[in-house]
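Incident log, support desk, overnight shift.

02:14 A customer reports that sequence design results differ from what the structure should imply. Their input is reproduced verbatim below. On-call engineer (initials T.W.) acknowledged and began investigating.
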């Protein structure tokens, strides 16, 4: 079904965090089944993602103090200062939703967003940093919760990790495929949800824009063979070598990490062929989960570390590509590492 202009506007507001509670629910419902809506939402996310990387220099303390002193003097010198305060308080208490018309071009939207970021960085220079640190900490907590699910599953299944039968060359990029064939490696992670070891919301990283908007409410968990779509899992799980003895948690390896940046470029339509050419940008980008500032990495021993490099502390191996890949390599979403020493998490 083709999206109406009203639905496109809804998704646009939803992507920028400008939707009301009712509109958030409508957008989530639309994204739960409409492939065109999912693709448009991902397009919006890619378009506004560069705003996350904008780094503003803190405003000098003396300039900030001077600004507030002038505001204070202006307020005290006004005969209607009390009335002004009352009006401001009344306005502040009124909840309202800001709307940005979809017809505005992206340069206008980016300029407006950059202006907002500039104002916030002048008045509250530490807010962004504190939010990043908070999101990183909550993300680590969620990964530990998922690890507990793995650990309890292994304990209940004679030391065996959750796994589904997959043939080498299976299209691991097809997250959300609900057929009988085991394609994506995320199905192993979904087993933890299906059998009650992990709450599905733990797979939603708090560092991403849409985390607070996504919900598993309304999904019939037991009827799904995989995560509903790629939107509903923000972490990448290890893809083992076909010859690997990947059965337990006794090895010192990478188990999971914040989402692989390659995942953002994969087709949303599962009927399409996947063909992605690596470039220097993709090979050097950190996970988008935390504004490309770094990624949390979960190891087999349950420890979680935030890394600004694309490798864990236990190895110099790039966890987001397979050994031997380089700029210009075509990725088809079915590649497997050749050995256990090649840590590769995807999609």
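02:41 Re-run completed on a clean worker. Output:
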């Amino acid at each position: 079904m083709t999206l109406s202009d009203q639905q496109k506007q809804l998704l646009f507001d939803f992507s920028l965090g400008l939707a009301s509670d009712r509109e958030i629910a409508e957008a989530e419902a639309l994204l739960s089944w409409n492939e065109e809506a999912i693709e448009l939402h991902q397009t919006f996310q890619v378009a506004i993602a560069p705003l996350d990387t904008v780094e503003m220099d803190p405003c000098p303390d003396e300039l900030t103090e001077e600004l507030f002193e002038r505001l204070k003097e202006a307020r005290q010198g006004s005969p209607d200062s009390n009335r002004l305060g009352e009006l401001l308080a009344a306005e502040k208490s009124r909840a309202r939703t800001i709307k940005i018309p979809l017809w505005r071009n992206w340069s206008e939207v980016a300029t407006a967003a950059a202006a907002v970021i500039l104002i916030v960085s002048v008045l509250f220079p530490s807010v962004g940093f504190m939010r990043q640190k908070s999101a990183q900490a909550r993300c680590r907590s969620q990964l530990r919760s998922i690890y507990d699910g793995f650990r309890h599953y292994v304990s209940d299944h004679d030391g065996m990790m959750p796994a589904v039968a997959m043939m080498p060359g299976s299209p691991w990029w097809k997250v959300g495929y609900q057929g009988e064939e085991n394609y994506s490696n995320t199905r192993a992670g979904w087993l933890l949800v299906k059998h009650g070891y992990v709450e599905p919301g733990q797979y939603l990283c708090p560092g991403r824009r849409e985390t607070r908007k996504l919900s598993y409410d309304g999904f019939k968990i037991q009827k799904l063979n995989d995560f509903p779509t790629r939107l509903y899992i923000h972490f990448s799980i290890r893809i083992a070598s076909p010859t690997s003895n990947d059965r337990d948690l006794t090895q010192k390896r990478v188990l999971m990490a914040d989402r692989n940046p390659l995942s953002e470029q994969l087709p949303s339509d599962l009927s399409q062929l996947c063909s992605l050419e690596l470039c220097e940008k993709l090979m050097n980008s950190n996970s988008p989960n935390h504004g490309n500032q770094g990624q949390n990495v979960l190891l087999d021993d349950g420890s979680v570390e935030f890394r600004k490099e694309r490798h864990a502390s236990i190895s110099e191996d790039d966890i987001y590509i397979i050994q031997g890949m380089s700029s210009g390599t075509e990725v088809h979403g079915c590649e497997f590492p050749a050995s256990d020493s090649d840590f590769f998490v995807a999609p």
